[in-house]
Amino acid sequence: MNKNDALQASKEPHSLAFVIRVSVVAALGGLLFGYDTAVIAGVVGFLQQKFELSSTMVGWAASSAIWGCVLGAMIAGYMSDRFGRKKVLIVTAILFFISALGAAIPNNLTEFVIARFIGGVGVGAASMLSPLYISEIAPSHIRGRLVSLYQLAIVIGINVIYFVNLKIAGSGNEAWNVDMGWRYMLGSEMIPAVLFLVLLFIVPESPRWLIKKGRKEEANDILTKVNGKQKAGELMTEIETALAQESGTIGDIFGKGLRMALVVGMVLALFSQITGINAIIYYAPEIFKSIGFGAESAFMQTVTIGIINTLFTFVAIWLIDKLGRRTLLIYGIGGMILSLIGVIICFQFDVTGPWLLIFILGFIACFASSLGPIPWVLISEIFPTKTRGVAMSFCTLILWVGVIFITQFTPMLLESYGGAFTFGVFLINSIILFVFVRMKVPETKQRTLEEIEHSWTK
What we know:
Number of strands: 0
Largest sheet: none
Number of helices: 19
């Protein structure tokens, strides 16, 4: 789409409002992603005391939901290709509610783990489906911004639960929090889960999925609402041509040309998680306590992290369709590397006070403006329509494997080797990713999904 086409599409009556409204609803899957995964930051310390957990079992409690995420990511692509993006998103909302209720009332660690696993299935499925759905319905000139709404929703969810955790933790003493406070933290997720479920009934199905299933009239109506009548006709032809050239088998993404797309998607997905973000998001209060902050102060620093995460995600939304995906990644990862060096120095030489917080906030700012949203955008753009669901499932599966390793082993590394070594691992991973982005990641801004697909196979 050229600039004039983009401007014309944005002038169509209600088209921009429609696509933003639909994208915001889909992005609520990201809010529940952030809410569900970050709630453990406030829960884990009290849970450890309640059930007298070792550091290994703390990691198991924190990562139990992540194992569900792996299963959710594995099956969501196939299920959404068969039954539709919208229907499977509705199922994820139901899973979120069941998990929040179950995790709030366990009598032992096993019951807690089962409930968290159920929620993890929903998180894993939504983490793939929400950006996929947005990318398939958004016009190309603002697709980066709209898919980035998913990452914004994640950090808003993280931010909200940090405030909720802080409020609940302050409602009673230590003994009350160990006995009851963490249950309220987990149960609070039922509210956004119900909201997500209700709103999903007002959004349409993905037009590209409808075309793939032969439901062209429905797809044309949606494309017209988003792009205008003239552009909708052009896109219908472009999508149908691309679909006719695809076999729709899993072998497509391993074939010549698209194989590199798969490598790019896998590397970005994995390294977005093993460069340190989840160690900070999940264990921030415990990290700050380990260097002398009191419990209440540690929770306050965590809230500060959430605010910075949110603010700098807006920077990504502002720049992603202007500077482009690749440029933002290069600058952002470079800033993460410098910030991690500062964090390592603080741990190595016992530098206390505000310096550690400053470097961690610098890392969060750089991540939020680049490596946070951009992998979701890219892996939702670079695969063919017929296999996009399965290909994104594969990449998202790799992402959640990375989350498992970080969630399970971070408390063990911190306890056994200290902060300097732990963040040194994240630094090495960041350097590897920086080199890969410079060498292999293409620019995709302002291009239709079919144009991107053609560029791999050309």
